[in-house]
Design a protein that fits this description.
alpha/beta, L-amino peptidase D-ALA esterase/amidase, seven-stranded mixed beta sheet, five-stranded mixed beta sheet, 11 helices, 18 strands, 26% strand
Amino acid sequence: MPQNTTPSASLGQIPGIRLASVPAQIKNWQRDDLLLIAIDEGATVSATFTQNAFCAAPVTVAREHLRNGNIRALLINAGNANAATGDQGLSDARACCAAAAQVLQLEAHQVLPFSTGVIGEHLPLQKLLDAIPTAAAALQADGWDAAACAIMTTDTRPKMASRNVTIDGAQIRIAGIAKGAGMIQPNMATMLAYVATDAAVAQPLLDQLVKGAVAASFNRISVDGDTSTNDACVLIASGATGQQITDADSDAYRQLQEAVTAVHIELAQAIVKDGEGATKFVTVQVNGAASSAEALKVAFEVGESPLVKTALYASDPNWGRLVMAIGNAGVDNLDTTKVNIFLDDVQVVKAGGRAADYTEEAGEQVFSRPEFTITVDLGRGQSSEHIWTCDFSHEYVTINAEYRT
């Protein structure tokens, strides 16, 4: 079941990280829509990106810059994805990096660019270039809360999470923000997310850490089955505490891994809860699979089926749609007579058919809850996996039909 995703009053500070959110008026709105994050010298930075073949210009540039190492700043804009924008899109992304580098006295390759918003439109470049110096002048350590709001698009609320963990007597802090409500489907990532810790983590371990955290969180969620052109998740280790994490087999690494993963999971679940038009948060748990890959395949087939998702919205426990989705997962030689399905603790399918003691009233009671679990037991192995999903409502169609208006 989900953890508490209610944002704390403030994320506070991560020593070695400063942030500033300013209005660049990228769209016709009155809000902050440009975020600058400055990172002190000596930090390590790792990231994962979308696998969409139409990846946005900032994703291409960020990948290039990340390979050079020594990243010292992130620049994020909302309202325009700078995706499917050709050579001009790449030029615009690089121009933004150069402008941020100039005011921060860095090299352009030390800046990672990120964009989110409408696809296929060129950035209002001059607006960004005019706003970057203002952002640089406003950098502050306690800018996380405003940052979470500045990166929103169709989100209805900011996503924030934090953890404290004591490692070898030193208190380590982890804080993160994310945005995302639609075009959400795993393939790294499913949105934009920025997580930082004040621990010192060697680059190879940080790369391992972010991949593991993403696999357990953002790659376990789906709102609509669509992978964005701009997805990215960044993990920063500022090293400000001096607490060194250098051994993947150490207790220190395992403690940090647990805390960092918890922050990622909380942010991922917050995205699903804020899915466009969503009214239900549902865990799909698959047990008894022959492999983890098989379990995840079945879980996503159930969690992404439009027919299942509309039944969730209607609070209609139409279990026929569940068995349909399981059957569509392409499980080799599936013995359907061994499949059992539960809605929370209510068994609806036993040995491949309707459970003898199941009642529609019991199923409706579960489906009417704002949060519940669909458990599928395939009866063919020892592997188990889970994902988090939501329902499809009328509001989802409205939001996306009117997205560009």
